Amino acid sequence: MAQSIVYKYYTIESAPRQGFNQQWRPEIIIISAKGEHGTTMRHFTIEEVSYPTEAEADRHGVAYGKQIIDGKVLGVRIADPRGQVGRMLYLQYKDSEISSAPFVVRNTRPEQWRACIQIISRNNTAPSGEFIDERRFYATEHAAHEAGFEYGRYIIDGHLPAGPR
Q: Quick one: CA dihedral 9, 163, 103, 156, positive or negative?
């Protein structure tokens, strides 16, 4: 019952597999749009859950793929069609976690980095979501990480009227 859907810049291909216990596990492949750097694919199997029918596993696999693309699965990043994604670093601040994954903006010479962060608020006291600091470029990945963490602290403290991208 495999299905393929287009979501944002990506294609999610779902192909659940049946385990020994006759339960179905969601299995997906996320494919980035073809670009100047080619096509990238990431494979995900959700081992923690299983469903009695293939259709349910299919539906949940696609939903999980959308969460990954939206940056809502902590610690999972996929190739961003905007450019090269840097290393992911984490920072605990107040009751929130800030994940920083800067990316290189395509076709910039020399390379220019943008700060991209994800905030997860443990007690819903701060905005949660993915934010990109569109105000400036950075010359290095390290500088973009530092700026991203600073941007995240300002958002959590309520100093910037930021919204998820």
A: negative
Q: What is the DSSP letter of 105?
A: P
Domain that holds residue 25: 3-69
Question: What is the arrangement of strands in the sheet containing 89-93, beginning at the earlier edge strand?
Answer: 89-93, 96-100, 116-121, 129-132
In a domain, 161, yes or no: no
CA distances from residue 88 to 19, 76, 120, 125 in whole angstroms, order as listed? 33, 9, 15, 24
Residue 164 lies in a domain: no
Give the whole-angstrom CA distance, residue 145 versus residue 113. Answer: 9
Structurally, the chain folds into a number of domains equal to 2
Is the pLDDT higher at 44 or at 82? 44
Residue 144 lies in a domain: yes
CATH number at residue 7: 3.30.160.350
- The pLDDT of residue 24 is above 60: yes
In a domain, 37, yes or no: yes
Q: DSSP readout, 114-150? A: E-EEEEEESSS-S--EEEE-TT--BSSHHHHHHHHHH
Q: What is the DSSP-derived secondary structure letter of residue 4?
A: E
